[in-house]
Amino acid sequence: MDIKETIKWQWEGYLNYHQSRENLFIHIVFVPIFIVSFVCLVLSIVWFNLVFASIFLFAMMLSFGFQGVGHSKETNPSEPFTGVKNAMVRILAEQFYTFPKFVLSGKWYQALRKLEQK
Asked: What is the pLDDT of residue 46?
């Protein structure tokens, strides 16, 4: 599956894998941390600052770990990764495209409201 197909597939099933209140809140906090940490990691590498690069890499891993905890709260578990390339594409697509789109489209809020009405 290429990147374009992966993004389409991820978007079409995204709500199905994000129905837990805990997971929604974990993502709204930790996806921005992942994004900022990634940008800072790249800048740290460009500026040859390995101390900051290590800190931001750790922050990215911590963010991703918390999101994994959030996904464990879901009744519909995420599809397993099929390999390293698949994992990298899916993780980066979710962090930089799918989740921001989920928030900006209003679907994150709709999912949260739906849970509050139950």
From this structure: 98
Listing DSSP states for 31-79 in one string gives: HHHHHHHHHHHHHHHHTT-HHHHHHHHHHHHHHHHHHHHHHHT-SSPPP
In the chain, what are the domain boundaries?
Answer: 3-116
Question: Phi-psi region for residue 48, left (φ > 0), alpha (ψ -120 to 50) or beta?
Answer: left
28, 108 contact by CB (below 8 A)? yes
Who contacts 3 (Cβ-Cβ below 8 Å, separation ≥6)? 89, 93
Contacts of 66 (CB under 8 A, 6+ apart): 26, 29, 30
Q: Which pLDDT does position 117 carry in this prediction?
A: 87
User: CA gyration radius for the chain?
Assistant: 15
Report the distance separating Cα 24 and Cα 74, nearest Å. Answer: 10
Q: What pLDDT, in 10s, does the model give residues 52-64? A: 999 999 999 999 9
User: Which of 79, 75, 42 has the alpha carbon at shortest distance from 57?
Assistant: 42
